[in-house]
Write a structure and sequence with these properties.
Elements: H1 3-35, E1 42-45, E2 48-51, E3 58-62, E4 65-68, H2 75-81, E5 84-94, E6 101-110, E7 114-123, E8 128-140, E9 144-155, E10 158-166, E11 175-177, E12 190-192, E13 196-198, E14 204-206, E15 214-215, E16 218-221, E17 229-234, E18 237-242
Antiparallel strand pairs: 1-2, 3-4, 5-6, 6-7, 7-8, 9-10, 11-12, 13-14, 15-16, 16-18, 17-18
Length: about 260
Amino acid sequence: MSTNRMFNRLYLGMKYVFALLIFSVFISGVANAETCTCDVGEHMVNGQCKPCDVYYHYYCPGECREVQCPIPDFNLYEDLFNGKMIQTDYKVLISKASSEMDCYAEGLVDTDVGTLYIQFRSDETNGLYKRQAGKTYISVKPGYYLQWLEVGNIVWGYKHYSGASPCTNEKPANSHYVSAPNLTTNDCPWECDDGFGHTSDDRCLPLCRIGATAMNGINIYAEKHTKYAMAVPRGGATCWIHATRDNGGKLIPIN
């Protein structure tokens, strides 16, 4: 047998073996795909369905495969909400609505209005968390109140509200709203500014700066504000103090 003929037979034999190998791999893949019966949240390991390792941020979207969640860049959320992240996490969750399993990034953002809870869902196509799944307030700062309670939405131990609005309830001049982080009505508490006292007729008037601003815990004012007041000479000036009703009818000792 000539050398060329032997070479041709060897070449044809190798092509046959190679084609058979490719066909076997294809058939094996089809068989595996057809026999993949794992539920969402499971993946195939040595022919058996095993739960996803969610503790290490793996999720199983189906097709018997396991995918690791991308690490979120929480700095993007600080810029987006013009605030500062004060608590962060990312985890694997299963949607109650669609039964789909996916990665979610969540955190608390301290803003000028209050504290926001945010949640973003991952996008498997580019590894980013960009599809917003939720944004709610859990508390507000002075001058705001919470609105639209999300019934049953308790995350990280907080009730969640869909909105926050500025306080518009009346307050006197020389006063400011004070903290009420869980306030849900437009009835924000207020207090008088420094150097002003709260009178019985709900005004904030300047306190007397001559010698003292209070006597036995009762404010002394730089001007008369009710008919139930008495003049108190202090260092050549006249100040005013509640004398009867605000003191329970008791006399105020003046030394």
